[in-house]
Amino acid sequence: MDERDALGTLEAVLFAAGDPVRLDALQKIFAKPPETLRRLAEKLKERLEARGSGLTLREVAGGYQLVTRPEYYDAIEKLTQVVDRRLTAPTMETLSIIAFKQPITKAEIEAIRGVRAEKALARLLEYELIAEVGRKQAIGRPILYGTTDRFLQVFGLKSLEDLPSLPTDEEALAQLDVQQLSLIDRGRLPGN
Amino acid sequence: MDDYRIQLAAFEGPLDLLMHLIEKNKIDIYDIPIAELTRQYMEHLNRMRELDMEIASSFLVMAATLLQIKSRMMLPQQSKEKETAEEDPRQELVARLLEYKKFQQVSELLQGQAVSEARFCAREPLDLPTHHVLADRLPLSRLLAAFQAVLAVREELRLPDALVQPESFTVQEKMSELRQLLVRVPRCLYFSEAFTSGNRTELIVTFLALLELIRLGEVRVLQAGAYEEITMEQVRGRKQEESQHG
């Protein structure tokens, strides 16, 4: 297989797969070392760009995926009814806690958020952003939750190590100050 | 008052309410005036009660926590030394508030990430034709080979010869067991799953039962590809069909 062929094959494979294809799966198809495949993927990405393709290569969830370029999203959007599946703030917070603290039980999530988590968990399970990953060796053997590959895809992460770092105490407080300022700006600070 | 109602309803939990009070009063989180914060917190709960709002138990737990911290703060310090040794009763609350805030922040960040990532569109995986060229009916030799593999595994496990009076198994019994198994398992049943228990005799009877079910057209065996494990599934409404397994 020469390089031209290999590039074509990779493009075809990724097109057919739809989902991200892991490096080990590519290794089975190409019988080539991971380094070569990584270079090949990089080459394909450049090639797509060079020919002004509407597609690009995305490295996500531990694999490579052929996707449309974000700048054409507005056009694609017109093809379909847009359903806003944005998560509500409480659900999103629950998901963040799971992402950073996994594996984690419902009780542990509730301890951090100070409210019950059933609804948020049900929603996240439904969207396949989290899954049951086991049972904690504790009384009642509570279910442990963790994030899924779908979570990585939705948030464009290569792996969990790709998560942004959790804010420090100072950063958390800094945001508090900003909010206070904006409250003053809007004259909403009552009583004084 | 109406305005108030809306604000009250917006609090998702006790930490949310506390955070709001701290922000509203520009409180230094490391030196929380606990008496004042507790007073305002209780005031909110009372308003909620007046408005006949249901108060989640988590709000009451937090109220108790606040009151406990407040009372501990009011206790006279016994000695200078003890004062330094004993931790600030507010410390745990501050830690919880900060952690809560952090996750709030990072979740906003992630939300933003999801919004921009949603602009990448991918296809659904192609329904590749190879998924359909399943060996619908396998030659008997394949089945036998699979069965022998099961037996070989049993052999390796070196099950002790029956110490108890050997039970007798009938093909009929095993057939109904297999039927039940097939109904219970929502997906295809793996070959090895059907042969999990029993000694040599029982395994052989189970295998005969499987062959009988295939003959009757109640069960179909499939193999997704070469060397893949053989699976079996129920055939619905095709009881009379003839099979050609061998």
Automatic annotation (TrEMBL), chain B:
- How would you summarize the oligomeric state and partners of this protein? Component of a cohesin-like complex composed of ScpA, ScpB and the Smc homodimer, in which ScpA and ScpB bind to the head domain of Smc. The presence of the three proteins is required for the association of the complex with DNA.
Ordered alphabetically, the record's keywords are:
Cell cycle, Cell division, Chromosome partition, Cytoplasm
Family under the similarity heading: Belongs to the ScpA family.
PANTHER family in the record, alphabetically? SEGREGATION AND CONDENSATION PROTEIN A (PTHR33969)
Tagged with keyword Cell cycle:
yes
Sorted alphabetically, which InterPro entries does this protein's record hold?
ScpA
Stored HAMAP family: ScpA
Gene designation per UniProt: scpA
Intracellular or extracellular location(s): Cytoplasm
The record's function comment reads: Participates in chromosomal partition during cell division. May act via the formation of a condensin-like complex containing Smc and ScpB that pull DNA away from mid-cell into both cell halves.
Name its GO BP terms in alphabetical order.
Answer: cell division; chromosome segregation; DNA replication
Write out the GO cellular component annotations.
cytoplasm
**Gene3D superfamilies per UniProt:** 6.10.250.2410
Report the protein name in the record: Segregation and condensation protein A
- Subcellular location, principal: cytoplasm
